[in-house]
Design goal:
The chain is of the alpha/beta class. It is built from 25 helices and 30 strands. The radius of gyration is 33 Å and the shape is elongated. Bound molecules: GDP-alpha-D-glucose. GDP-alpha-D-glucose (GDG) binds near residues 374 and 375.
């Protein structure tokens, strides 16, 4: 087991300078606390930006050495990179898009290039530290491209990615010109986590519609790898907040604040300055509440804590002005000498002060317009030792999914917010206790530590599942064993698929005629009297005959409909049912074509295929399941099979199947050595039909029922040459 490398845009540290040099203060963020137990263990490290621009090499060296003592490695960014990658693409393109603020999205090719370059810088820093067996855990929207960059450099590594902000609906995500590169970047990971089921669902839908990958529940099958998406809501360090709430620094502060507020009820609001947090709407709702409920004037105050953030971004500067103005208006409209409606602070506080605010407040009003999770509301609940207090929470925060005992509101509905605030202020203590108790129990059970443990556990599970699905490479030792068994056997069945197995694919399917090398290989192998060489293909009989009839091989065309011995005529499979079945099946399928836009019926000589690749995701799955069972009901008694494949439902006679024919040949011949080679889905039937002792080989990457895999047609030819040379 190697080390774990955690990667996030910011390192969990604040760097301060005093006379003696630089000092490193651990930050108290949720993530830092949660991962604190991990990144300091063994050789584990945390890689990220130290948070300020350091120019001189000597300073960088000093900082690197200081951070190394804390198990951290810096990625230094220039002021221009901070401007274009962090404040630019991350916070003026991705942040607004992912929070549904499409009006704020900046579409700048220059910022995108800076984002790519900065992601590359992070990836390179990780690669410098990476050793075999390591796990890399990448965090958040600033680093979406990093997983793929790592995967390209080191195809086998274990990579987890967690997104802390929402993943938007496909309808919004598709607006980004760089959408495909962003998705591919994320898909470099093995395990991709989100706070909520909806975020995960949106991600899967974008993956399907934009990248064309299919998924089954939450598993995405790429060409060569399985990726699992998951919803894993982040918890808090519950004990830390619960204990802080009753610590003496908190108690002391709380007493002081309480004295200043007197008998006034306090409503708390804490957020970073961000348009996603819904601060202006919250203020308007408070205004409406005071206007409609004058009896509450002088009886209730809003404690508004706004933590400065991203103030170099224009939309944040505008927001700051708007908040300042609204607070001014409300305070001047209702304020008295003895009462201030809104106590407004634009700064951040040390933890004991924050804790005192949580304890002091009768109500916490957390109403973001959109929030990945929102930890403040969870911290408020954990900081209520007497189990009183009311949480008014936006439906649009990820945490609303877990905290259903809060008073949930639509943050755009001012009247509902004003009414809910009133309800919160008048809620009987007993009812408050019931709600807080339930929420405390759930937050206590699922903390940040459980979240970290679960994430890493799930990531390892995905990796082991990938290994189980991976077909073993035909390593030299296994190939040697194969050759040994071949040599000592007396009767051999060699089943070879044609396209993609013996010859490469070509845009023109008629241009895949066997070349000289292949001709002589097949000739030699077929001449060996111990060998029964069969080419088993989906191709038409005429083409196969034209290309291969001169060779000492048996030919099977159109997946088993036609067979031909050397120097004999083509024989129609006697088990084929009469084509009348098609009429009934066609009627059924057409009924689904009419009801499902984007689907169509393909007529083959011995099969009918309903295609739904272009049908809207969801509808296609629904209708295909219906059609599948509808057809099964009618068809299976008639020696027909219904197959639900990759965006197709196919009905065809049982006899039309490479597996059926392979099994028959095997039973008849009773060989003591069997080799089957194939590259696509129809060859899977061959692999499945043969006994376990057979050498079944999948050509190319991807999950397969074959025992082993080889890289491509060239590797197949090399293998056949080794057989011939024995
Ligand atoms: C992103 C997503 C997701 C706040 N003021 C002070 C202070 N804080 C601390 C809180 C809390 C944290 O900052 C804020 O976390 P949130 O979750 O509320 O919001 P974002 O910063 O937007 O975080 C969010 C989160 O990532 C985690 O995945 O929940 O949806 O947007 O822990 O306590 N801490 C101190 N003084 C303050 O004045 N000490």
């Amino acid at each position: 087991m190697g080390k774990t490398i955690i990667v996030s845009n910011r390192l969990p540290v604040r760097i301060e300078r005093n006379q003696e040099g630089y000092r490193f203060k651990a930050s108290e963020g949720g993530l830092a606390t949660g991962l604190g137990s991990i990144y300091k263990e063994g050789n584990n490290i945390w890689i990220g930006w130290p948070g300020a621009a350091f120019e001189e090499d000597s300073v960088k060296g000093e900082i690197t050495a200081g951070l190394a003592r804390e198990s951290m490695k810096p990625v230094f960014l220039t002021p221009q990179e901070v401007d274009e990658y962090y404040l630019g693409f991350s916070n003026q393109t991705l942040w607004p898009a992912f929070h549904y603020f499409v009006q704020y999205i900046r579409y700048s090719e220059e910022m995108w290039r800076a984002y790519e370059a900065a992601n590359r810088k992070f990836a390179n820093r990780i690669l410098e530290s990476l050793e075999p067996g390591d796990i890399v855990w990448v965090h958040d929207y600033q680093l979406l491209l990093v997983p793929r960059m790592l995967r390209q450099a080191q195809p086998d590594i274990t990579i987890g990615f967690f997104q802390h902000i929402p993943f938007p609906s496909y309808e919004v995500f598709r607006m980004l010109p760089w959408r495909r590169a962003l998705l591919d970047g994320m898909l470099g990971a093995d395990y991709v986590g989100f706070h909520t089921y909806d975020d995960m669902r949106h991600f899967l839908s974008s993956v399907h519609r934009l990248a064309g990958y299919d998924y089954n529940r939450n598993e995405i099958q790429l060409e060569d790898r399985l990726v699992v998406a998951d919803s894993l809501p982040m918890g808090i360090d519950y004990e830390k907040f619960a204990q802080n709430a009753v610590s003496s620094p908190t108690e002391e502060r709380m007493e002081r604040y309480r004295k200043s507020f007197g008998a006034t009820q306090v409503v708390l609001s804490v957020d970073r300055l961000d348009y996603s947090k819904g601060i202006p709407k919250r203020l308007q709702a408070f205004d409406l509440f005071l206007e409609q409920n004058p009896q509450y004037q002088e009886k209730v105050s809003l404690l508004l804590i706004v933590v400065p953030s991203r103030d170099a971004v224009p939309s944040y500067q505008e927001l700051k002005e708007e908040v300042d103005q609204l607070v001014g208006q409300i305070n001047s409209k209702y304020g008295r000498i003895s009462w201030t409606p809104i106590h407004y602070f634009y700064r951040s506080y040390p933890l004991p002060a924050l804790s005192a605010f949580y304890r002091l407040s009768d109500v916490a009003m957390i109403t973001p317009l959109r929030d990945g999770m929102n930890l403040v509301c969870k911290e408020y609940i954990a900081s209520r030792p007497h189990k009183t207090g009311v949480l008014v929470l936006s439906e649009m925060a990820g945490s609303a999914k877990e905290l259903s005992d809060a008073l949930l509101v639509n943050p755009n509905d001012l009247q509902a917010m004003a009414d809910t605030l009133k309800k919160a202020l008048t809620m009987p203590k007993e009812e408050q206790r019931q709600h807080i108790e339930v929420m405390q129990q759930s937050l206590q059970k699922y903390t940040i530590f459980n979240w970290v443990e679960l994430f890493i556990g799930n990531l390892q599970w995905v990796k082991s599942k990938q290994h189980r699905l991976d077909t073993l490479q035909l390593a030299p030792s296994r190939q040697a064993q194969l050759l040994k068994e071949y040599q000592k056997s007396a009767t051999r069945l060699l089943l070879l698929d044609y396209d993609g197995t013996l010859v490469p694919f070509h845009i023109d399917p008629l241009a895949c005629k066997p070349d000289e090398e292949l001709n002589s290989l097949l000739q030699e192998l077929g001449n060996d009297p111990k060998n029964h060489l069969v080419i088993i293909s989906g191709r038409k009989a005429d083409t196969l005959g034209e290309w291969l009839a001169h060779l000492p091989v048996k030919l099977v065309a159109e997946h088993g409909i036609w067979t031909k011995e050397k120097d004999a005529d083509w024989q129609l499979n006697p088990e084929l049912v009469q084509p009348e079945w098609k009429e009934e099946a066609r009627k059924i399928i057409n009924f689904y074509v009419d009801r499902t836009p984007g689907s169509f019926l393909e007529e083959k000589r011995h099969a009918l295929v309903w295609h739904y690749r272009k049908v809207e995701k969801g509808l296609g799955e629904l209708r295909s399941a219906e059609l599948n069972s509808h057809l099964k009901h009618f068809m299976e008694q008639q020696r027909l099979q219904v197959l639900h494949g990759n965006h197709v439902v196919e009905v065809k006679p049982n006899a039309v199947n490479k597996g059926t024919i392979a099994q028959k040949l095997h039973q008849k011949l009773e060989p003591d050595f069997t080799l089957a080679l194939g590259d696509d889905r129809t060859d899977e039937d061959t692999f499945a039909s043969l006994p376990e002792t057979a050498y079944t080989l999948k050509v190319g990457k991807g999950a397969s029922r074959a025992r082993y895999s080889v890289e491509d047609y060239q590797a197949v030819r090399n293998l056949l040459k080794s057989l011939q040379d024995l």
